[in-house]
Amino acid sequence: MSKVGKWSLGLCALIAAFLMSNLIGNAQTEKPSAIVKVGDFAASTDFLNLSQYFQLTRDVTVKVAYIPTKKVGAPVKRALTLPAGTDVAGSLTTTKRHGYLVPSLQLYLARLSYPLIQQSAPKGYTIDPGAGAYDPQVTLKATAELTAFKRVKVPDFMPGYSHGDLYIGGAKAALSPMEPSSKSLRITPDGYAEVLTYDPTVSTGLGFYQKPTGMAKITKTDYHDPYRRLYFSHDIKGVKTKRVSHTGAYQYRLTLKNLHNPQHTLGDEDNGIAGTFNSLYSVGGTPYFTFIGYDGISG
Question: Could you tell me the pTM of the whole model?
Fold first, then answer.
């Protein structure tokens, strides 16, 4: 290999190390492969929802796939601009190139607020959420793009081990084999609370990705376990908030209480199907549940 070639590979390694340091700078509270208690079970954090969070230090434009909402058709790609200051959920991974590990960043953009992700959607199309909650909408590898993301801690308004989707119903609903199909509350990484009413007329998997029936920007969070108190400048249709002021940005409050009574659904080990964990919450006095992870590897 020429000196130039060796120098180029060395530079790539330095850039990769710098990016990893910058992106990993503010680590999660749970260490990889830690064992934690989930109710009466010991669970590995490898199988729980430990999303990483990143804040954009400048505007970044990415290509995102949108799919037809009510008809069968091919996805279309559109440019979506993520503004500076936006927090996004993601997963930092590495790929091997020329013998060196190069960082790449998977972004879960379908979890962002409806106004942001739909700004580039063609009429009659919805962002493609993928087949599951772990499917990223974008994977970034270019150095210039990666340097725009700064690792930040999990926002206080995000329920523990949750992707932010809470579904109405108590323990019975959490343990039911039926998919949720009524109402949900979505807490987004970019700081919105959205009430979503399931739309049975759209394509499979898109029922909770349509326009919210109620929505507000989170202006402040008070977190003292088991309570998360979210504040808004206006009321949210579809959930019970409490008016605590008549002026300013903190007029309404929504209380999320973690009941610390996780529900475990058995899997089928012989067929490679993992069991699941759900957390129970009281949201404004109404029972909800949220998926928090698996008890092992699914096939």
Answer: 0.86
